[in-house]
Amino acid sequence: MEQSTGGGYLNVLASGDLEPGQMREISAGTHRIVVGRLYDGTVVAFAPSCPHEAAPLVQGTIRGGSIDCSRHHYMFDVRTGENTFPLPIYPAWKRAQVSDLRLPIFPVIERDGWIAVEPEPYQGRVDDDQENTELKDSEQTSSSRRD
Amino acid sequence: MGKVARQVVEEAGLNVDELIDKLVAAAGAEFTTFYYYTILRVNSIGHEGEGMKEIIEDARIEDRNHFEALVPRIYELGGKLPDDIRTFADRAGCPDAYLPDTLGGVTAERRGSGQTAFGAYPAAQDTAIQDLLTILVEAERCAVRTYTDICNYTFGKDHRTYELSLAILNEEIEHESWFSEFLNEGPSGHFRRGAPGESPHVRRFMTADIGKS
Ligand code: FES
Ligand SMILES: [Fe+2]
Ligand SMILES: [Fe+2]
């Protein structure tokens, strides 16, 4: 089960400073974190380096619920951290060669005109089981919905 | 290199080295896609596969054309292609379009949830041809994202690269919709090319080809 590791939420950005489709890289605790807003208004928070070859994700583009890395256009679901391209279409032999391609995701909420993040990423892993993925996805989404 | 050609872009406020990186990555993706589409095309066999061969050929040749059209712009701006083709392939801006398990004679594994910005991937291993089409359509979608990114980057600042990228983008969007149509996602709205891989949008940038039929 995913648990935040404590430490509480830190206000990092005024809500009005993040338009749909925008991202900003901020510091919280010892972490650098990218905070972004999806086009449906949901706020998301994730690690700043691409799990593929460490390109800065803040230079990428939000598309639907994913971040599209500008270097090789890998895509990651910014609510689960799951790679959505190209891993799902790689053949088994290639997937076996690829090391962990999962984007660390941070708990994030929006309250009282502020966006607040917990400065530690989710520790739990969303495994490949579809039901679990959906359950955890909806838990995270509800906690990060706009007020 | 075109000294003034580079200077005007720099003075418009673009980071030309970053732009060159994007163009080399795009050219690498075209070159590797041409290679992988060659493999995908020869494996497109059987009842449904034969019907797709022509359209894969159009996309394959046009991707090679995109490579040809990008290269002069890279050198004009003071860039170059990597000396080693392995470096070039590693810098490709889109992932490799491998033959799917179902066409490689391997029993395929279940994929992850496969949710994309555009919805779920088709359930894996319905048929080999559907898996093949999924690889093709996703490769084209990566190309659409690539040239949208370059158009956004150059818009109003580097007119020549913008126009070139826009011409390529026009063709990538057509490629996506051809394969999408085969996946029953709706009509492409297009008719087939008059000649294989004729690149109606990019052709005018392939100036070395002038004089050929
Ligand atoms: S570094 Fe992000 S896709 Fe390669
Ligand atoms: Fe192309
Ligand atoms: Fe294409």
What does this molecule look like?
The complex is a heterodimer of chains A (about 150) and B (about 210). With about 150 residues, chain A is of the alpha+beta class. Chain A has a single domain (about 5-135), classed as 3-layer Sandwich (Rieske Iron-sulfur Protein). In chain A, about 15% of the residues lie in helices and about 30% in strands. Chain A is built from 2 helices and 10 strands. In chain A, the strands form 3 sheets. Chain A has a 4-stranded antiparallel β-sheet with strand order 5-6-7-8, with no helix packed on it. Chain A has a 3-stranded antiparallel β-sheet with strand order 1-10-9, with no helix packed on it. Chain A has a 3-stranded antiparallel β-sheet with strand order 2-3-4, with no helix packed on it. Chain A is elongated, with a radius of gyration of 15 Å. Chain B is mainly alpha-helical. Chain B has one domain (about 5-100, about 125-205): Ferritin, core subunit, four-helix bundle (Ferritin, Up-down Bundle), CATH 1.20.1260.10. Chain B is about 60% helix and about 0% strand. A two-stranded antiparallel ribbon of chain B has the order 1-2. Mean pLDDT of chain B is about 90; it is low at about 110-120. The interface of A and B includes residues 64, 65, 88, 130 and 133 of A. The structure holds FE2/S2 (inorganic) cluster (FES) and fe (ii) ion (FE2) (2 copies). FE2/S2 (inorganic) cluster (FES) binds near residues 55, 71 and 72 of chain A.
